[in-house]
Amino acid sequence: METIGVIGAGQMGAGIAQVAAQAGYRVLLSDRDIALAEKGKAGIAKRLGLAVEKGKATASDAEAALGRIETVGDYAAFGEAILVIEAATEREEIKRAIFAEVGKAMGGDAILATNTSSIPITRLAQAAPDAGRFMGVHFFNPVPVMKPIELIRGLATSNETVSRVETFAKKLGKEVVHANDAPGFIVNRVLMPLINEAIFALGEGVANVRDIDTAVSLGLNHPMGPLTLADFIGLDTCLEITRVLLEGTGDPKFRPAPLMVKYVEAGWYGRKTKRGFYDYSGAEPVPTR
Ligand code: 3HC
């Protein structure tokens, strides 16, 4: 059984650990400390339990998948991993520190991949143990549901690295797309202007939260309206990516909507803080404007 290391047991890391374990890999799941890794694993257990209840997975398959996930408190065991995926907080200095640390434990042939949604891969590669065995592997939230994976190679990434990661992604049952190391890659380059424009429209009084979301969701047949989706992703993350698009392209069309900046300054990040364009403190989200 091949071993995969996952760094970060939050929404994305736990999702990645889950799909890798369900695809038959042994998964080492880590976070800042073992308690956080265990919290991530408990969330996976809950989601697998729901899948069993719905008849989408058998109890024995779910139990076996969960059994393949081991929480770890440090990177010592990561020497056994053929691939390590970093899905930690979207801050460059945090990722760089992780790469330096995990690099000491990783085997000479192992690949390090980052789930960054916006930081340039070629720049991050400078902190990796080997730029040839480093690349971007961008999953979407919620990971078990969303089909695509963007694969992003840095300037020094080897063909072998891309091909090995592509094989892994396909084993997870994902649809692989290749993107160049350009700001926002593909999906966020297209998505963030949509979200940003919806926030401009709200700020300029074109319509209220409910009507913008209802119109776009039904009018474009999207599962969520753009303001609901912004709350789901996190407004802090949306702002971060929009700024990367602006800085990376120099194109003013990517300037963040003032209302998005204000909400982030207020600490209204969306679902995770219970307040964004909706209020999540009750049983159902309530629009706030
Ligand atoms: N983890 C695992 N599975 C989940 C889940 C989660 N967090 N949330 C929902 N699901 C599953 C449900 O169990 C259900 O599975 P089933 O069909 O097997 O029963 C299925 O998804 C549908 O869920 P629900 O019926 O509860 O609710 P919805 O039909 O409203 O679907 C949704 C929820 C899948 C989140 C859907 O609203 C959706 O697709 N929204 C858009 C999500 C999106 O655009 N994601 C991309 C964000 S951008 C990104 O990630 C990039 C980053 O860099 C910013």
Automatic annotation (TrEMBL):
The family database entries (SUPFAM superfamilies) matched by this protein are listed as: 6-phosphogluconate dehydrogenase C-terminal domain-like, NAD(P)-binding Rossmann-fold domains
Q: Which UniProt keywords apply?
A: Oxidoreductase
Domain (3-hydroxyacyl-CoA dehydrogenase NAD binding) spans 3-181
Q: Does the keyword Nucleus apply?
A: no
Where do the 3-hydroxyacyl-CoA dehydrogenase C-terminal domain residues begin and end?
184-280
Tell me the domain of life.
Bacteria
Keyword S-adenosyl-L-methionine appears in the UniProt entry = no
List, alphabetically, the Pfam families matched: 3HCDH, 3HCDH_N
PANTHER family found in the cross-reference section = 3-HYDROXYACYL-COA DEHYDROGENASE FAMILY PROTEIN (PTHR48075), 3-HYDROXYBUTYRYL-COA DEHYDROGENASE (PTHR48075:SF5)
Q: What is this protein called?
A: 3-hydroxyacyl-CoA dehydrogenase NAD-binding domain-containing protein
Write down the species. Sphingomonas oryzagri
What phylogenetic lineage does the species belong to?
A: Bacteria, Pseudomonadati, Pseudomonadota, Alphaproteobacteria, Sphingomonadales
